[in-house]
């Protein structure tokens, strides 16, 4: 059940052979939801279908979207893969230690994000994730093929999911059809006490940045780096939906106070 909530997200994949191979390894390890962000190839091309072999259903059901935020719609947890060392507080983790975190809320959508074959994910795209993994490789040849990287991560997820099933009594976890959302067949959070979906957090970040620019706490040329710090801080807190609502309420009240002060002063 937990694996069925994980989306494998490919940002601008350029190789149909890679896309087909990824569909195959997803099928091998029990993952079903493939999301393509602005694909630079035809996912149903002959090459892709040939590499997918018996996983053509994964390709046919793959969802194509324009932006990464669209791909993350409804997800409460996201891990991004990167080969770069970044100078920030969020560490680069090993897949075996970080990926089980995606399965801890088995009825909540989660995402595993992979970047482009040639240059990976941009800094802006990495900001949409809460944790980051780097697959350890030999220093003699550290670059991994995209499909190989996906295969390693899928294996780690499947291994952990199997261990969880062996340790947990079986119960009926079928999700009623009325709780499924479109275009992704995943449940909508049923309670404000659930972890906040990433799209709700993103709306808060946008509102926060706008207000901080307005009051002069942020400056346009430093806003991006400062907001990265805020994102890291909130990621560590793992905010619930009701908590994000409270924070947004505070921002709205501050905005109202600023507008009324300006109106009173005749601005």
CATH fold group of the largest domain: Alpha/beta knot
Task: Report the average pLDDT across residues.
Answer: 86
CA radius of gyration is 20 Å
> Hey, roughly how much beta strand do the residues contain?
5-15%
CATH class of the largest domain: Alpha Beta
Task: Characterise this structure.
With 267 residues, the protein is of the alpha/beta class. It has 2 domains: 3-171, SPOUT methyltransferase, trefoil knot domain (Alpha/beta knot, 3-Layer(aba) Sandwich); 198-264, Helicase, Ruva Protein, domain 3. 43% of the residues lie in helices and 11% in strands. It has 10 helices and 7 strands. It has a 7-stranded parallel beta sheet with strand order 3-2-1-6-4-7-5. Helix 1 (16-28) runs parallel beside helix 2 (46-52) and helix 8 (198-214) packs parallel to helix 10. The longest helix is centred in the C-terminal third of the chain and has 24 residues, at 241-264.
């Amino acid at each position: 059940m937990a694996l069925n909530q994980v989306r494998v997200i490919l940002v601008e994949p350029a190789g149909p052979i890679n896309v087909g191979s990824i569909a195959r390894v997803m099928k091998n390890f029990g993952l079903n939801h493939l999301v393509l962000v602005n694909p630079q190839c035809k996912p149903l091309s002959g090459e892709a279908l040939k590499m997918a072999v018996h996983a053509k259903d994964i390709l046919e059901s793959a969802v194509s979207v324009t932006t990464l935020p669209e791909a993350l719609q409804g997800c409460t947890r996201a891990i991004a893969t990167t080969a770069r060392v970044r100078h920030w507080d969020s560490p680069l983790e090993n897949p075996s230690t970080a990926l089980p975190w995606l399965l801890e809320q088995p009825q909540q959508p989660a995402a595993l994000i992979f970047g482009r074959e040639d240059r990976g994910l941009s800094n802006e795209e990495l900001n949409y994730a809460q944790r980051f993994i780097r697959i350890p490789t030999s220093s003699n040849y550290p670059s991994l093929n995209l499909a190989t990287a996906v295969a390693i991560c899928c294996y780690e997820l499947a291994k952990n999911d199997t261990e969880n099933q062996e340790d947990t009594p079986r119960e009926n976890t079928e999700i009623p059809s009325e709780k499924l959302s479109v275009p992704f067949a995943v449940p909508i959070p049923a309670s404000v006490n659930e972890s906040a979906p990433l799209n709700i957090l993103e709306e808060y970040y946008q509102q926060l940045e706008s207000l901080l620019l307005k009051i002069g706490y942020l400056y346009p040329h430093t806003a991006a780096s400062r907001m990265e710090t805020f994102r890291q801080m909130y990621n560590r807190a793992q905010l619930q939906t009701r908590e994000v609502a409270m924070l947004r309420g505070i921002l709205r009240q501050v905005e109202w106070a600023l507008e009324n002060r300006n109106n009173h002063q005749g601005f």
